[in-house]
Amino acid sequence: MRSYLVVANQTLLGPELLNELHKRIEAGPSVFYVLVPNTAAAHYHTVPAAGGLMPMPSVVMDFGRPASDEEATAQARQRLGQVLADLAARKVQADGDLGSAQPLEAIEKVLAGREFDEIIVATLPRRASRWLRADLPHQAERRFGLPVTTITTKH
Length: 155
Known about the structure:
Organism: Amycolatopsis carbonis
Structural class: alpha/beta
Shape: globular
CATH class: Alpha Beta
Strand content: 15-25%
CATH topology: Rossmann fold
Strand order of the largest sheet: 3-2-1-4-5
Protein name: Universal stress protein
Number of strands: 5
Order of helices and strands: EHEHEHEHHE
Largest sheet: 5 strands, parallel
Number of helices: 5
CATH superfamily: HUPs
């Protein structure tokens, strides 16, 4: 069974990540841990969320820029809950949690207690992505010695 660490926040319900997760699920038995760095409201980029992770009827959610850090955390928890529910509905083993707003720190904490075959980082387009500007995918690959797949939304 392949084990994947998925790192995403605003892009968690996007179709690009959906397609990548589907590829992994179709390739064979998979288990996912979804890590959502708890981004501060001031660092949000306004992105409408796709209507759910899996191709099934779901409520369309539009997560605009949160008014406060508390609202940002609530939105992140809602996205995490949705993706975990969608994976569970597909009978895919998945768990997850919110982590530090600093993605490398959040990844390091998760890796301290678990082993993964790959890290999947889903991010905003380069023009809006703090993670890409900070070279998060390459930093994570070098620091943790795991392959990193980067999924960039088209928003």
